[in-house]
Amino acid sequence: MQFTDHSTEHFQVLRQLLERFEQELADFASRCQPELIVISAGFDAHQNDPIGSLGLTSEDFGRWTVFVKDLAEKYAQGRILSVLEGGYSPEVLAECVLLHLQKLRAE
Q1: Which one, of 50, 71, 47, 49, lies nearest residue 59 by Cα?
Q2: Residue 36: which residues within 8 A CB-CB, separation 6 or more?
Q3: Which long-range contacts (CB under 8 A, 24 or more apart) does 47-50 make?
Q4: Is residue 48 helix, strand or coil?
Q5: CA–CA separation, 91 and 107 (whole Å)
Q6: Pairwise CA distance, residues 42 & 69, whole Å
């Protein structure tokens, strides 16, 4: 009998998805040269959110914040507007929002 580690498969697919998303976003920013970047900061895709099912971690959201912040610095003179729009676990939401704000404020 052969067992499949679905968590490992999911992790690999998710990593590929995140890398592809970042590449597509960077390419788009390069083409459109934004003057302002708006973040729709929804955290319901977190692995511990009761509604989301994408399986992202708080660290994934932190990584994306830094990535988008870097794009804003490159193309929009650092101008970012971040709007909270989702997350249905108070504990996870608090953790993600705090990390998001810390990454935005970091030098």
Answers
A1: 47
A2: 76, 79, 80, 81
A3: 48/89, 48/91, 48/92, 49/87, 49/88, 49/89, 49/92, 50/88, 50/89
A4: coil
A5: 26
A6: 16
**Structure tokens belonging to residue 24:** 């597509």
Domain positions in the chain are 6-105
- Tokens 């960077």 correspond to what residue? 26
If one compares 16 and 7, the residue with the highest pLDDT of the two is: 16
Q: Do the beta carbons of residue 57 and residue 11 sit within 8 Å?
A: no
Question: What is the number of residues in the chain?
Answer: 107
- What is the pLDDT averaged over residues 49-55? 87
Res 39: pLDDT: 97
CA distance 96 to 46: 9
The encoded tokens of residue 68 equal: 């988008």
